[in-house]
Design a protein that fits this description.
By secondary structure, the chain is mainly beta. The protein contains three helices and 24 strands. Helix 1 runs antiparallel to helix 2.
């Protein structure tokens, strides 16, 4: 067995998204090759309603899958396939954009004003870029949980772990997505397949992740590992990128540690990316934005409702699409490099 060395530790960076939502981006600012098949991880934990209630009005996606995991508050969702719903604390929403979908995500805090959760983007392989869109909503009671003899607690959002399988299936990246809590002072080793890229995102307590050259301290919010108290030090959000190996070993601090542990099989394909659309070539990217201009972006599978559906939500959808088109076609550097300076949902 070989321990995965810590390749890099970074702090999530503040950014503004959607209609003015304040969040922290763990990765997704630049080259994401080391995270392949994942593209972006956003931490939208926030205790100030004015910083998140504007939400993410109607906007397009193509070529990716988005995974939203809520810890507190609710997120209301609607899309061009006719899906409507809300995910609350402990729930997961998994959306396969495929050939194209237009949707909105509107966060609503809990009675204490908290809106806590994460959104992860997973890339689709070239063979599935234009697959039919799909939406999966998983309630907290459907997510299996397992507790080891030493008190280590794991929620299995997706994939197989310790003999149990998560409820989300049919995901191209074949990810394993875990919410792990390790009790104070405990040392724990967790298996991760060698062929996968893997990272951890710590959001409670503190600990050290063992490295080839020694342990690496990971400071995070000073809250109890099993406490539901809102974060005290919101700036201390640590992302750990692991090198190759078949296990991750960590030592929990005095308050324990809670973190996401995510791994996936790399696609190793070219990426052409601007904002909410991720393709393999610049020509595919240009075609997607041309279709947005011409009104042909949604294919039959992604258009289950009449376009008048947007009237229920005012003009946000149209202004959002105009902004995406204007940003793409009005920025020469982005047409060349395929990435926006601001990655918007």
């Amino acid at each position: 067995m070989s321990i995965r060395a810590v390749k890099r530790l970074v702090q999530a960076k503040p950014t503004l998204e959607g209609a003015g939502v304040h969040l922290r981006r763990a990765f997704g600012f630049g080259n994401t090759k080391e995270f392949d098949p994942f593209l972006l991880l956003d931490d939208f934990r926030n205790d100030v309603p004015e910083d998140y209630l504007a939400g993410f009005p109607w906007h397009p996606h193509r070529g990716i899958e988005t995974i939203t995991y809520v810890l507190a508050g609710t997120v209301e969702h609607g899309d061009s396939m006719g899906n409507r719903g809300a995910i609350a604390a402990g729930d997961v929403q998994w959306m396969t954009a495929g050939s194209g979908i237009i949707h909105q995500e509107m966060p609503k805090g809990d009675p204490a004003g908290r809106m806590h959760g994460f959104q992860l983007w997973a890339n689709l392989p070239s063979s599935l870029k234009m697959t039919a869109p799909r939406y999966q909503e998983v309630k907290t009671g459907e997510i299996p949980e397992v507790t080891d003899d030493d008190g280590t607690h794991v929620r299995i959002v997706c994939g197989k772990f310790w003999g149990k399988s998560g409820p989300v299936d049919g995901i191209a990246a074949d990810p394993i997505y875990l919410d792990v809590s390790v009790a104070p002072g405990k040392r724990k080793t967790l298996p991760v397949e060698t062929t996968r890229h893997a990272f951890a995102y710590v959001f409670g307590g503190a600990g050290t992740f063992c490295n080839a050259s020694g342990p690496l301290a990971v400071p995070t919010e000073a809250i109890k590992w099993s406490d539901t108290t809102p974060p005290v030090e919101a700036d201390n959000r640590s992302l750990i990128l692991f090198d190759r190996g078949d296990e991750v070993t960590l030592q929990a601090g005095n308050d324990g540690i809670r973190f996401l542990l995510v791994s996936g099989k790399p696609l190793e394909e070219p990426v052409a990316w601007y904002g909410p659309i991720v393709m393999n070539t610049q020509e595919q990217l240009r075609r997607a934005f041309t279709e947005l201009q011409e009104g042909t972006f949604l294919k039959d599978a992604g258009r289950k409702l009449n376009i008048d559906y947007a009237k229920d939500y005012g003009a946000n959808r149209h202004s959002g699409l105009r902004r995406e088109r204007k940003n793409y076609f009005g920025t020469a550097a982005c047409r060349t490099h395929g990435r926006g300076c601001h990655l918007s949902r």
